[in-house]
Amino acid sequence: MTVSTETYIAAGSLSGSNDQSRRQRRTFPTIMISLMTVAALIAGWTALSLYQIISPIFLPSPLSVGRSFVNLVTVGFVDSTLAQHTGASLLRIFAALFASVFIGIPVGLAIASSRVGKGIFDPIVEFLRPLPPLAYLPLIIIWVGIGETSKIVVISLAMLPAIILSTVAGVKSVSSDRINAARSFGATTAQVLRHVTLPSALPSILTGVRIALGAGWSTLVAAELVAATRGLGFMIQAAAQFLVTDVVISGILAIAAIAFLLETIARLIERRLVPWGSRL
Amino acid sequence: MGTPGPSKAFAVSILSFENVSLDYGAAAKTGKLVLGAINLSLRADEFVAVIGRSGSGKTSLLNLAAGFIAPSNGRIAIDGVTIDRPGADRAVVFQDDALYPWLNARDNIAFPLALRSVPRADRFEAAEKLLNHVGLPGAGDKKIWELSGGMRQRVGIARALASSPRFLLLDEPLGALDALTRGKMQELLLTIWSQSGAGVLLITHSIEEALLLATRVVVLSPDPGRIAADIPVSFGREVLAGQPVRTIKKQNAFHSLQETLTDLIHDEQAERAA
Hints:
heterodimer, A: mainly alpha, MetI-like fold, about 0% strand, B: alpha/beta, Rossmann fold, four-stranded antiparallel sheet, disordered N terminus, MetI-like (chain A), ABC transporter permease subunit (chain A), transport (chain A), transmembrane (chain A), MetI-like_sf (chain A)
């Protein structure tokens, strides 16, 4: 999210007209405003904990959170280091992403390109889409057990609608001229799909992947509620039960940092794969 | 092309509209036709320009020839063989270039060859040749979004030529270009037509363009689209012979034809208003 706001602001300042540029030179760069906001928040946090306005049990000082973070990295919490917790969570996220891309893109293609496909899959997607993952988590556990599979299934189900719907949107927005051009050069239906429809829909599909990653992270904590022994979500919940608030906050910061990192990587991949983006 | 005598009639393909009419979806119920009883034949050594007001069914005519849509009645055939789908013998150039941004200029041009599994080296060579042919030497590695509108259309034309079609179907390919670029592209179209041996069907809303390029100008009138006039012209040959376009446009013959065609299209308007 931060990345996108910055991009918009950067684009805005580039297109600023001449009479604005003088004022802009005097004004503060936006990134500095953001950094100052963060600094102010940390200062406020320090003050609150330093003068014991809020009990350290509820709000430990930034210093003790930092110390606990270092401790998480070196020693760990509930039998695993931060790297191991992160690894377990990332593994689930990526397994789920792989599964939902593998299923979601063909389903999206079927919905977008065939009346029968739309008839079959549309009600299922519309049923699944508004459901909160926590609602169907117990059912998934009853069906596939408390092992790793149920966690991946739950995260996949949360990711699927984003992938499917973005594929549908992408395929539907392919210009008919592009398709007709290929047909007029003698392309078969399969060739049109492979060489025109899919690459045309790719920008939309990649946007869907980014949205799905977001949905995946928000489902992760719920998925690790039951019978997990590792994972960032599990770590936060275990810490909460023992009222180890500094670990809870460290865990939240770790998730935020990783989500931000993934978003940035996803954007880099997007720029690499679809450099034409919105230009064409 | 060089074959002498009567055998030439067999060598040149003919694209023919035989009693073709077309209605669209809801219009079918009211019996309203987009095109009614079109009879038109286009030889593969002709350059036919189709003009007419918007709504006269120009683009529908091209879509029928391309095989993108099927006629409601009648048939379209090449050398007597009915067309029922798009095919590589009829390559289309679109107003909105319809190039593929994930391919560079060279691979866009080689696209029709890739569909036929032509080996990579041969595709490369053919594309480079076509790049030169359309006046874009050395631009093969350029991304589509790095090209100007005129350059994109050049790539689009080269891509259509790569298909080695018998007929080139041009759907207002110069419609979105500025006047200067347009002039250069018109000369390119003429050169390509004279060298490729493919028949050209050009849809345009510019009477001047039709007169400068075509060997025949077909005027469509609307409601339903039908052929109001089919006039042979020859200014294109003068352009090819190196006569400046400006002097051609000053000729009386050019002026009077321009007026005749303007009147033909205008009369329709008056008729509709009445």
